[in-house]
Amino acid sequence: MNASDEEITALLRTGVSNNAVVQKLHVDKHRVAALRRTLGLPAHQPQPLTLEEKWATKTRKVDGGHLHWTGTLGSSAGTPVLAYRGTLVTAASVAFRVRTGRTPVGYVLPECDYHHCVAPDHVEDEPGRQKTREQLRYLTGGTARPDRCVHGHDQAEHGKFEDDGTSYCGRCKAEKRAAARARETAGV
In what order do the strands lie in the sheet containing 79-84? Predict the structure, then answer.
């Protein structure tokens, strides 16, 4: 194809890059660059994707309203992650931001049965999960959680709920895990 200067100029004026013109019209890149300079058009400034736009390019809809992550998986657990402007974020945390417009608190996890689902309506942060689990506790006939655990920890600060609404002390659980890791490291 032998495109005219007018065709190249028209395409350049739409704001596309020199490479886009070369690919579309099959013309010499030096000719396109020279025309851009002659016209006094600034170099093409790509519009970078927002975090949410980049996230959306790495998802695929699957049955049940779930979103499958097609991007990078991090860590040994295979957590869906996304590199953006020099930082690594979890895909679930971006999905949470898409739904709520705010930064999540704590881990963001899917509340559905699809492993590592990143559908915005299927993920929840720590406070949201705890609120839902507390509501489940009351709906299934559970009573209010005690003010203190058996070790005296304040449950307003450390109290948490399992998936089924059972209450537990987050601090006690963390201390038990730390003690188990210490024993494992010591070879006991």
Answer: 73-74, 79-84, 87-90
Structure tokens at 2: 């032998």
Helix (H, G, I), strand (E, B) or coil at 160: strand
The token duo for 100 is: 């709520």
Q: Residue 4 to residues 8, 17, 51, 140, 141: CA-CA distances in angstroms? A: 6, 17, 39, 74, 77
- Going by C-alpha positions, the residue among 41, 18, 40, 44 that lies closest to residue 30 is 18
Predicted local confidence at residue 188, as pLDDT = 65
**Share of the chain residues as helix, strand and coil, in percent rounded to the nearest 5:** 45, 15, 40
At a CB cut-off of 8 Å and minimum separation 6, what does 57 contact?
49
Tens-digit pLDDT profile for residues 70-86: 999 987 789 999 999 88
pTM exceeds cut of 0.70: no
Confidence class for position 15, pLDDT limits 50, 70, 90 = confident
Q: Name the strand (E) or helix (H) holding 100.
A: helix 91-100
Q: Beta-carbon neighbour count of residue 96 at 10 Å? A: 23
Residue 98: what residue type? V
Q: What is the token pair recorded at 89?
A: 């974020």
The mean per-residue pLDDT over the stretch 120-131 comes to 95
25 neighbors 51 (Cβ within 8 angstroms): no
* 1 pLDDT higher than 70: no
**DSSP annotation of 109:** E
